[in-house]
Amino acid sequence: MAAASAAARGQRVLLLEKNKKLGVKILMSGGTRCNITHNCDVQTIVAAFGRQGKFLHSALSALPPKEVIQKIESQGVKTKVESTGKIFPVSNKAIDVRDALVNLALSAGAEIKPEQTVLKIRKLDNQFEIETQTDNFECDSLIITTGGKSYPGCGTTGDGYQWGVQFGHSIIDTVPALVPILNDCKWANALKGITIEQTSVDIWQPEQNSHDNEALTKSERKARKSRSLVKRNGSFLFTHWGFSGPAILDVSRAVTRHPNRRSLELICDFYPQLSVGQLEDSLRNKKMRNGKKQTGNLLNELFPKRLAESLILSANIELESRNAELSKLQFGALINQVKRCRFSINGTLGFEKAEVTAGGINLKEIDSKTMQSKTTEGLFFAGEVLDLDGPIGGFNFQSAFSTGWLAGLSATQRTG
Fold first, then answer.
1. Confidence at residue 227, expressed as pLDDT on a 0 to 100 scale
2. Sign of the CA dihedral running 72, 73, 76, 82
3. Beta carbons of 254 and 175 less than 8 angstroms apart
4. Dihedral angle sign, alpha carbons of residues 254, 258, 261, 267
5. What is the pLDDT of residue 208?
6. Residue ranges per domain, the chain?
7. What is the distance between the alpha carbons of residues 399 and 389, in angstroms, rounded to a whole number?
8. What is the pLDDT of residue 195?
9. In the chain, what's the furthest Cα-to-Cα distance?
10. Cβ contacts of residue 153 below 8 Å, gap of 6+?
11. Cα dihedral sign for 15, 16, 20, 24?
């Protein structure tokens, strides 16, 4: 996007690509379908990024979501909006999006050189000198769009951070975001591959075991005991090593940012469609109507059979027992397993499997109206190399596309 924006305004533009293959991370994204952006307005994108959102105003004005779609479709790639608001290519092939972006840059007049790993960057007078393993290049304006540290197998190994530091920038500590969470609960791990379309997940900070609690009032202790760090609703996936899916990925940054992540708990409401009271009434009525039937079938209308049985067993209820035999204590335990199922957290899969990097080039040191460095004239940053990370749903691609477009435009205005 940066190359296309700059080249479309008549500048001589060279894009240096570290990999042999272009857009490797795009090819992997969205389960190889590529969630291009989200079907929403600019303000929704801004709000999705929280404290970082204000930084994106100018970039999103330069290239809002609808214009991203127009540019992709101008290259012959039709798009579709799914029920979640996510926008994908109709073909469900990420390679079509990658090719559209490459064609957008090439048709604008940009030159692309793959297999050019940048070894050094220097600024001499008013020009930058870039040294790769095979060549040296000079330019008036330099845009760094090297991504973060997530999925390093794609080539995103944090190269841009060292160049930022070299030119006087500070780096906000980087951690994995949108990353699966690890857990060693045997019954849950055995459910690998099962997806629940709607689950409410809550990252919970339990009460700290310290003598300080003795000085707190009862209400203060209760507040500390019930501290929720972040809560999200969405699809939930059981894996053999823990949990994944959009709901989990969206709360994962609270885990990776926490200084003692193993002290955290994951609280899952596996059926948020009903309140606790509504679920109690529904299951109680079913239990009474089918008193002679086995309890192993009590949750079959709500969940896949394996999950339904696992929840019953984890509440210490035998599958062969009869509904009429369920005690009040057992019934309460079953409701808890459905609505307040608790899991310990053993960490995450880290940068190796994170979709996004949280942290990066400090936004305070970048002019949000141009994407130009405040420390070095002619130096621009865009995309994930910046301290910008949003939720799942195409928001991070939109941020990258918009900041890249604005950086390319600003670089041409600087050089005339």
1. 85
2. positive
3. no
4. negative
5. 62
6. 2-174+356-415, 180-349
7. 8
8. 97
9. 87
10. 352
11. negative
CA distance 118 to 127: 16
- Identify whether the C-beta of residue 345 lies closer than 8 Å to the C-beta of residue 362: no
Q: Which residue bears the tokens 């929720």?
A: 228
May I ask the CATH architecture of the domain 2-174+356-415?
Answer: 3-Layer(bba) Sandwich (3.50)
pLDDT of residue 414: 72
- pLDDT attached to residue 218: 57
Task: Return d(Cα 125, Cα 170) in angstroms, integer.
Answer: 23
**So what's the pLDDT on residue 214?**
53
Amino acid at 209: N
| Nearest to 1, CA basis, from 92, 67, 93, 96 | 67
Question: pTM, whole model, 2 decimals?
Answer: 0.91
pLDDT of residue 416: 53
193 and 170 in contact (C-beta within 8 Å)?
no
Q: HEC profile for the chain?
A: CHHHHHHCCCCCCEEECCCCCCCHHHHHHHHHCCCCEECCCHHHHHHHCHHHHHHHHHHHHHCCHHHHHHHHHCCCCCEEECCCCEEEECCCCHHHHHHHHHHHHHHHCCEEECCCCEEEEEEECCEEEEEECCCEEEECCEEECCCCCCCHHHCCCCHHHHHHHHCCCCEEEEEEECCCEECCCHHHHCCCCCEEEEEEEEEEECCCCCHHHHHCCHHHHHHHHCEEEEEEEEEEEECCCEEECHHHHHHHHHHHCCCCHHHCEEEEECCCCCCHHHHHHHHHHHHHHCCCCEHHHCCCCCCCHHHHHHHHHHCCCCCCCEHHHCCHHHHHHHHHHHHCEEEECCEECCHHHCCEEEEEECHHHEECCCCEECCCCCEEECHHHECCCCCCCCHHHHHHHHHHHHHHHHHHHHHC
Q: How far apart are CA 240 and CA 187, in angstroms?
A: 10
Amino acid sitting at position 316: N
Which segments in the chain show pLDDT lower than 70? 208-226, 415-416
